[in-house]
Amino acid sequence: MNCLASIIKYLIYIANVVFVICGILIIILGSLMIGNLGEFKSLDEAFNVEALPIIIIVLGCIIFVISFFGCCGAIRESSCCMTTYAVLMLIMFCLQIALVIWVFVKRADFLKTMGDVVDTAWKENNSNKNVPMDALQISFKCCGKNNYEDYLMAGNKVPISCCGSLEIKECPEDVYKTKPGCKDEFVGFWSTNMNIIRYAGIAVAGIELAVFTIACCLASSMRNSRRNDIY
């Protein structure tokens, strides 16, 4: 390969190291999103709640694997590996764009659904459903659907989970009065993470498109170099 091709090879390698890190960070983001849901799995809506974090984790794993493949292809100077990598990167770019478009188009509907999930948790807040509000209140440091007064208006005592734990005997009034409502906190949690997905996804997709173009050029250069060596 010529000097320019060698420079591009190492740029591809560095870019894929960055992608490997991005893939790990995306996996961590999805894991944190699932972790913050606590024991919310007791509700029938749990699949809808966990679907987006699972998709994000799968996407992060795919990015990690493809990027690792790209690093090996660049270092080994294999035109076959680099062509395969370019095709995989194009597929990855399309999947990334599809996810970003879905988040932009469905964001409002998705957030409304998440608000409805909290409404369902409030209605089904009993031992038969493993008291889903306890899981919400501990995970998101909130109290009640809108605030602590929801319990008082329903003729119930404010639960100790409003203090963020089930291991205490009583939740002090000066603590639970400062807690925000779970509906706002839960919807806000998803809103923040969807914003991260939207704008970070656009940036990563742009880089992926650039890397795809460069990988195609590098694969062509490798084939030409191999052909020149033969003849």
From TrEMBL:
Transmembrane segments: 12-34, 54-75, 87-105, 196-219
Domain of life: Eukaryota
Native organism: Zeugodacus cucurbitae
Membrane topology: Multi-pass membrane protein
Pfam family, one: Tetraspanin
Disulfide bond residue pairs: C142-C182, C143-C163
Any one GO cellular component localisation term in the record: plasma membrane
Phylogenetic classification of the source organism: Eukaryota, Metazoa, Ecdysozoa, Arthropoda, Hexapoda
Keywords: Disulfide bond, Membrane, Transmembrane, Transmembrane helix
Record protein name field: Tetraspanin
Coiled coil: none
Family of the protein in this entry: Belongs to the tetraspanin (TM4SF) family.
UniProt-listed InterPro entries: Tetraspanin/Peripherin (IPR018499), Tetraspanin_animals (IPR000301), Tetraspanin_EC2_sf (IPR008952)
Locations listed in the record: Membrane
Gene3D superfamilies on file: Tetraspanin
